[in-house]
Every structure is written in structure tokens, then in C-alpha cells.
């Protein structure tokens, strides 16, 4: 069997080091661990799935590919499918950023021995970056991939060797950047946009945030009938944030080679 991955899953696979012990949480059809096992890239893998249908599909995938000696399909919620120290890489893809954070935070002991996280939130990427910063994980790589008309961010993080290393890495990565005399990429904006993605904006990056600007403009129009002072203040803050985002993207567009 020659397993083919989507562009999104291929990016995740490329960031799983050779010889890893992988836990793929929310594995669905277990395509990622099956591919890595077939390529003999991993020592072993756990394919975790909480829902019965995808769990059964993953079982069929692994059995059909005759990879049961290397990939264990387990049904359970989040990191409940692994034991502390059992794996050294965790991948989580295709969920909201809030849910990814919830899964990683539910049982910190399960992250014992884990040195790398490969995460692909569908939305709420800033929540994931903020969690990585709080918990001492160094964000090492970011990718933005367009596939079937959708845009996906993939984040690679490695556990910092010490608190001091994490602090220094964080300071370098999220140091404010001046785009021009009027526009600065603040720490808050770097968390939202991605410190690496915003440093070298690709056409996919520009497309993602132009779409976001249009979405936020529609939301702003729905807030025009704000009746209370509190609601008017919320609208003013939202409008200011939108204006900042528009200015940031305009600077990036003019700075492109």
C-alpha cells in the first residue's frame, strides 16, 4: 500500500523526526501514523481517536496496511490514550486552537518525555501560541498552506531545555517590529499573525488576513446600532483593531519585493 497525504498532513509528517515515537491525537483515519510507519520513519505510533466511527476507520486503515506491529490504534479522549514517557512527539491536527490547548493542558504528566509538538489548529492559532509561551515551549517553525480553498497554519514547537532558554527565545521571537514610523508589529499582533509567518509574508499569508479583514469589517457593520455606552466602546475598540490590521497588511504589501 502506498499511502498519499494531503499537503497539510505532509507538512506535519515532514516535521516528525526520524525514529520518533509519535502520538497522533484525533487521528481520524490514522493516515499520518500509517504513512510514517510505512516509510519506516517512526519507531512506533499511537493513533488516538475519541469517536467510535473514526476509531473504527483508523483500525481498518492500520489493519489493511498491515502496520499493527508499529501503530497502536486506541480509543480515548485526548492524551488519555498514552502513558507518561511513552512518546516523544505529539501531533494534533484539524481542531480549533482552544480545543488543542485544552487537550494539552488536561493532564500535564502525559507530556513527560515529549520533546516536540506539531500542531495544526483550524482556527484560534493565537491561543496555541500563547499556550506554548506560557508552558515553556519554543516555537521553531510556522507554515501556512492552502489546500482545497482553505488556509491552514502548522506550528512546530520544541520543549525548551531550561526556563532561561525559553525566556530568551520568547523575547527574540516576539520582540516588537517597526514596519514604518506609524506602524509597529506589537507583541500582541505577533501572537495573532505568527512571528515567523509575518516576517516573510507569502501570498497565502496575505490572502488569509485580507479575508479576515473583510470578515471583521462585516462584523463591525453589525455593531453600528450599538445602543449602550459599553457597546459603543466595544465597537470603537473593534474598529481600532481593524484599522491596525489594515495598516499592518498595507505595510507588508508595500514592502514585498
TrEMBL record:
**GO function terms (MF aspect):** tRNA (adenine(22)-N1)-methyltransferase activity
Q: Name one Pfam family in it.
A: TrmK
Transferase in keyword set: yes
Any signal peptide, and if so, which residues?
A: none
Q: Does the keyword Translocase apply?
A: no
Which key words tag this protein in UniProt? Methyltransferase, Transferase
Q: Where does this protein have coiled-coil stretches?
A: none
Biological processes per GO annotation = methylation
Q: Which InterPro entries match?
A: SAM-dependent_MTases_sf, TrmK
Kindly give the PANTHER family that the UniProt entry links to this protein.
Answer: TRNA (ADENINE(22)-N(1))-METHYLTRANSFERASE
Q: What is this protein called?
A: Sam-dependent methyltransferase
Source organism per UniProt: Paenibacillus dendritiformis C454
